[in-house]
Amino acid sequence: MGSREKIFADLNSVKFDQRFDYPTYAHPNSSVIDPYNSFTTVLDSVGGECHYVKNYDELKAKLVNFEVYETAKNICSCLPEIEKGNIDLNLVEDVHELHNVDLAIASGDFGVAENGAVWVNGDKLKHRGLLFLAENLILVIESGNIVNDLNQAYDLIDFENTRSGYFISGPSKTADIEQCLVIGAHGARSLIVFVIQGDK
Fold this sequence. Notes:
22% helix; five-stranded parallel β-sheet; globular; Rossmann fold; single chain; 22% strand; alpha/beta
């Protein structure tokens, strides 16, 4: 018996007669007064951008002025309201084919004010790897919903029926090696978030 098999055998030999429930946990962020302002401020502080628009027409009018959109050679949009560019995700068979995507545009369900993150349901995408392979990422919060903190965020997530989902903020950063900051090591080099608020 190898060490791996022995470890699993030891784990399987341990039996618990009583039920152990998850501990209750609550940590509301009382410092968030205006979630939309806080979301914008926090996202900006980590290197991202947030823009509020009324509808997709206004979004598209602004989008053409962004350098990441103007200069992108390979664009993959997962939103029918925005031009798909030259890569249709539904026609891609192997996720590795997305290695050269300059800009990905996807939908986010809502934002979180306390950490500037956007919840993205990966089940909506044929290849969720797009979110991490693209050089630049644009997320659109169609609901216009920004919650105060992760406590409220978890209440909105259907954990029973969601196979993969991600809180994405950005851009991707790491300083693990010699405390040298590297942008884009584990994901997009830039993140722009559009929040559609309707006529608010």
